[in-house]
C-alpha cells in the first residue's frame, strides 16, 4: 500500500484550505477502509428504513444477522488471499508485467466464488429459508468477496475520486431501490431491504471492474496464473486469514453466550455485542489512514535507501547511517500515529459513547463500546506492526503474531464471558495489546540483527521455490496445450474429410 500512500500524500500537498483537507482525508479513508465503512453505513440506513416501515423486531434481527454474516465471512474468505495478492501485484508492477494482473484477478475471483461460494451455498441449504432469500444472499456474498478483491487491485489505479463515486453510487442505489421496493412491490420488508443492498453492491462492483479493465492491459485468461507465486508467498495466506479471523473471533465466542440472538438453529449473532463492535471498528480509521499516507510512505523511503545502499555499492558508513535513519523514522512515525489515534480513541470513548447511549444503545452496550475503542486501537497498532514485519520479509514472525492474536482473542473473550456484561470487550483488548507488544518486540529484535538477517541468512544461490501450486499450474498449462493440439488436429481432420468428400463428389 506504500504506492497508494505516495499518491494520497500528493492530495494533501496539492489541496489548500480546510474543505480541501477534509476532502483529501475523506478520499484516504475511503481508499483504505471504504468497504467496511460502507457496510456499516448501509446497515444502519436500511435498519432505519425497516423501522420506519413498521418492521418487527424479528424482521430487523433477520436483516442484521444476514448483513453481519455476509460482511464478516466475505472478509475472512477474501482476506485470506488479499495480503498475498497485494504482494503478487506489487511484483508484477515492479517487473513491468502488467499483462499478468487481470488474469490473476479473474483467477482469484474464480477460486473465491468456487470455494467461498460453495461453502456459503452449503450453509444456506441448512437454514429454514425460502429459495429467493438463499439466492439473494449467495449473490451478495459473492459480490462482497469480489469487491474486497477489487479494492486490493484498485490500489494501483490511482483514480481515487472515481472510487469515491463508486461508494456513493452504491449507497444511493441501495437507498432509492429500498424505498421503491418497500413501497411499490409485494416483497417482504426483509427481502426488499436485502435486495436493495445487493443491487447497491452490484453497482459498485461493476464500476470498480470497469476501472480495472480500463487501467490494466488484458492478458491471457488463466485461473492458475498466480499459483506459482503461492509456493513462494504461501505464508502470507496464513497471515491474512488469521488476522481476519482474529478480528472477529471475539464475536464468534460471544455468539455462544446467553445473550445471543437466535434466528435459526444454526443462525446466531449478538446485537448486544455486535453493534458496539461495528461502531468501535470505525474509530481506528484515522490510524489506518495515517499509516498509509505517512508511516508507510516515510518508512518505505528509508527502507529503500538502506537496501539501495547494500545493492548498489554503498560504503559501510553509508549503510550504517541509512539503518540509523530507518530505525529513527520507523519509531517516530509509529509514535506519532499512536498519539493521534489515542487522542481520537479517548474522544470517541467519551463523547461518541454518550451520543450512542442517547440514540439507543443501553448502558451495557455503551460500556462495551468504550472498552472496544481501546481494543481496536491496540488492534490497529498490531496490524500496522505486522505489516512492517513483512517489509523485512519476516513472514514467520508475522504469522506467529496473527495466529497468537486469533487464539488469545478467543481465549480471553471466553474468560471474560464469565464476568459481568460490561467487561466483555476486555478480552479483545488484552489480546490486541499482547499482539501489539509481541510485534513491537519482534521488530526491535529484527532491527538489532538486521545486518545478520540481510547478509548471512540469505542463500548463496537463489532458487525459485517450487511446490504443489507450481506443479498444478504447469500441469494445467500442459493440459491446455494438449487440448489445443487435439482441437487443432480434429479441425484439420474434419477439414480434410470435407475436402475429400467435395473432391469425390465432383
From TrEMBL:
Keyword Repressor set for record: no
Entry annotated with the keyword Ribonucleoprotein: no
TM region positions: 24-50, 62-85, 105-125, 131-151, 163-184, 190-214, 235-255, 275-295, 338-356, 368-391, 398-416, 422-441
Top-level taxon of origin: Bacteria
InterPro entries cross-referenced by the UniProt entry: PelG (IPR031617)
Alphabetical UniProt keywords: Membrane, Transmembrane, Transmembrane helix
Protein's name in the database: Exopolysaccharide Pel transporter PelG
Organism per entry: Candidatus Blautia faecavium
